[in-house]
Amino acid sequence: RVLFRSVSNKGLTMPQSPIRKLVPFAESAKKRGVNVIHLNIGQPDIKTPQQALDAVKNNNINVLEYSRTEGSEAFRTKIAKYYLKNDIPVSATDIIVTTGGSEALSFAMNTIADNDDEIIIPEPFYANYNGFATACGVTVVPVVSKIEDNFALPPIEDFEKLITPRTKAILICNPGNPTGYLYSREEIQKLAALVKKHNIFLVADEVYREFTYDDKSHTSILKEAGLEDHAIVIDSVSKRYSMCGARIGYLVSKNKEFIATAMKFAQARLSPPTYAQIASEAALDTPDSYFAEVKTEYVARRNILIAELE
User: Fold this and answer.
1) H or E stretch at 68
2) Where are the alpha helices (DSSP H) in the chain?
3) Do the Cβ atoms of 104 and 234 come closer than 8 Å?
4) Coil, strand, or helix at residue 119?
5) Please, is 121 exposed, middle or buried when counting C-beta atoms within 10 Å of its C-beta (0-12, 13-18, 19+)?
C-alpha cells in the first residue's frame, strides 16, 4: 500500500528555528516553578518608547483599513528622514514597509534569486537565514569567519572562489548576529568592489545599526558611491525601539527594478499592519537620549559578561 504523503519536500527540509524550538521547554519549566533565564531569543527587556505605545492607545481610527502595500506615505517619508539623519540619502520611494525584517529578507531573496540560486553568507550567521533561504528555494553558501580573527570579514579571496554562475548575492549582518562584529568601512568597500566586479547584489541586514560601542561607527552599504544598483538593506524597528512584537521592517534599495519587483511580492500579502505602522512612525520621534541610555545599559551588561568570562 502506498502511503499518502501530505507535505512537500520543501516543508520536510524546512529547518526548525533553533531559537524558537526551545520555547515550549522553557514554558513547561516555568509552569513547574523553575526560574528561566532566556538566552535563546533576542527579546530586549528595555522599555518601548512611550510615544509609540501612546500613538496606538490614543488614536481615533473608526475603520481599521488596509494600508498601502508599500506602507503609508507619511511613515515612509519619516523613515527617509531617519536615514538622512544618519547620512544615508534615500527617498520614500526607495522603501517598502514589511511585516518585520524577516519578511523584508524573504522579499529580497524571492526578488533576486530563482530556485537553486546561491547566496554567500559569512558564518556564523543568524540561524533563521537558513529558514528564509529554504522557503525561497535558495541555496546558502557559507564562508567561514574565525573567532581567532574576532569574526572579521573573511579574506575577499574566500568569497570570490565561491562565486559561481548561480551566485546572486552576498548577505551580511552588520553589526553581526550572533557575533557582534562591526564591519569597518574598508571591509564594506572590499565587498562593494567584489559585487560590482561580478554583477551581483550586496544585501546587508542592518537592524542593529545603533548598537555600536567603544566609539566605533556603523557604515551602511547605502553610503557607498556606485553601489546603487547592487545595495539592498534589511531593517527593522524590533531591536532599535524594543518593539519586536510590532513586526515592522523595511526593505530599502535605490535599485528601481528591484523595488518594483519586490512590490509584487508585497502586493500578494496586501499590506503591513496598520496599528504597528502607527506605533513605528511615532517611535521615529524617539529622542537621542533614549539610545544613549540604552547603549549605556548594554555596555554595562557586556562589561559584566566579559569580566566574568575572563
Assistant:
1) none
2) 9-13, 23-31, 50-57, 73-85, 100-112, 128-136, 156-160, 185-198, 256-268, 274-283, 288-309
3) yes
4) strand
5) buried
Asked if residue 124 lies in contact with residue 145, where contact means CB atoms within 8 angstroms, the answer is yes
At residue 171, the pLDDT reads 98
Output b/e per residue, 140-163; b: 16+ Cβ within 10 A. Answer: bbebebeeeeebbbbeeeebeeeb
Q: Which residues contact 228 (CB under 8 A, 6 or more apart)?
A: 254, 255
Amino acid at 104: A
How far is it, in rounded angstroms, from Cα 222 to Cα 123?
A: 23
- Burial pattern 216-253, b for ≥16 Cβ within 10 A else e, equals eebbbbbbbeebeebbbbbbbbbbbbbbbebbbbbbbb
Query: Can you name the residues that pair with 233 across neighbouring β-strands?
Result: 204, 252
The CA distance from 72 to 55, in Å, is: 15
Instruction: Kindly tell me the sign of the dihedral angle through the C-alpha atoms of 73, 74, 80, 83.
Output: negative
279 touches 241 (CB < 8 A): no
State the angle between helix axes of 100-112 and 256-268 in degrees (0 to 180), rounded to the nearest 10.
120
pLDDT at position 19, please?
A: 78
pLDDT of residue 3 exceeding 70 = no
259-263, 265-269, 272-276, 288-292, range with the lowest pLDDT: 288-292
Nearest to 96 by CA among 209, 262, 229: 262
Q: What DSSP state is assigned to residue 118?
A: E
